[in-house]
TrEMBL record:
Gene3D superfamilies: 3.30.1330.30, 3.40.1280.10. It comes from Hansschlegelia beijingensis. This is 23S rRNA (Guanosine2251-2'-O)-methyltransferase. Residues 42-115 form the RNA 2-O ribose methyltransferase substrate binding domain. Residues 28-37 have a biased composition (Basic and acidic residues). Pfam families: SpoU_methylase (PF00588), SpoU_sub_bind (PF08032). GO terms for biological process: methylation; RNA processing. Keywords: Methyltransferase, Transferase.
Length: 280
């Protein structure tokens, strides 16, 4: 049945949906692959909506747009798969929180199928998020992960923001390029990655070694990031192969988690350039 056409005004801008059971590694899609969200996804803002419409894997359901936004999408050649409903900006304002910057665009779309832990390339670069709950931070991390061609972002189905609304806007189109893998238990997911040969490095200000001096090897690397304030949970720390710190020469030693992710990915990509194709 088609999802409801009147989303609730909520912090995430999420429409109502019918709950699906969580099975295996996360929320399952029609072919057994996990979905990055339960039910329709809300995407707003020009860059986020444009990337979603350009992504053949993203199925649009409903697009609300102002006349100016329609002209912009038409000029970019992005309206082939959906017919927009032309509205005034206030109609979109009522569907979102007062601080949402939608730029005249509001899209409801199907969630994306993602990889599984077993289908991530064995020589891949992976981010693992340990209960990072702020959608702005996670969105910024997703955007950075897309910039550095991360193969997957692993996070828990609970204690993490959903791939919609504020997170999608903060990711600025990154959700279309950095696939999310939702798991039920992070320690077990790390164990699975370890069994597949991934080097699991927990980023911790009290780590024994500096991350930029760490040898990453030729196999897969999983960078594990903890929530601001709490950091990595004890079981997560114990499941990592090593703990490494990001050394900063200035007076302030701690970084916002999204900034830490950007620095770590830059260092990791210099040590592990992209290959022509991953190996499974």
């Amino acid at each position: 049945m088609r999802p409801p056409r009147s989303p609730r005004p909520a912090g995430s801008g999420s429409p109502r949906w019918k709950k699906r059971p969580v099975q295996g590694g996360g929320r399952e899609g029609p072919r057994g692959f996990p979905r990055d969200h339960e039910g329709p996804v809300v995407i707003y803002g020009y860059h986020s909506v444009a990337e979603a419409l350009a992504n053949p894997r993203r199925k649009p359901i409903r697009l609300l747009a102002t006349e100016n936004a329609v002209a912009r999408l038409t000029e970019a050649g992005l309206l082939g798969r959906v017919t927009p409903e032309i509205v005034r900006p206030g109609a979109i304002d009522r569907l979102l929180t007062p601080d949402a910057v939608h730029q005249g665009l509001y899209l409801e779309a199907e969630a994306l199928d993602g990889p599984t832990l077993e289908t991530i390339p064995r020589d891949g670069l992976v981010l693992v998020l340990d209960q990072i709950t702020d959608p702005h931070n996670v969105g910024a991390i997703v955007r950075t992960a897309a910039a550095f061609a991360v193969d997957a972002i692993v996070t828990t189905a609970r204690h993490s923001p959903e791939a919609t609304g504020v997170l999608a806007k903060s990711a600025s189109g990154g959700l279309e390029h950095a696939p999310l893998v939702l798991v039920q238990n992070l320690a077990r997911a790390l164990q699975t990655l370890g069994d597949r040969g991934f080097l699991r490095i927990g980023l911790d200000s009290e780590g024994d070694a500096s991350f930029d001096e760490s040898a990453l090897g030729s196999g897969g690397v999983a960078l594990v990031l903890g929530a601001e304030g709490k950091g990595l949970r004890q079981l997560t720390r114990e499941t990592c192969d090593r703990l490494a710190r990001l050394d900063a020469p200035g007076a302030i030693k701690s970084l916002n988690v999204s900034n830490a992710a950007a620095i770590a990915l830059y260092v990791a990509r210099r040590a592990k350039p992209l290959t022509a194709a991953g190996t499974d």
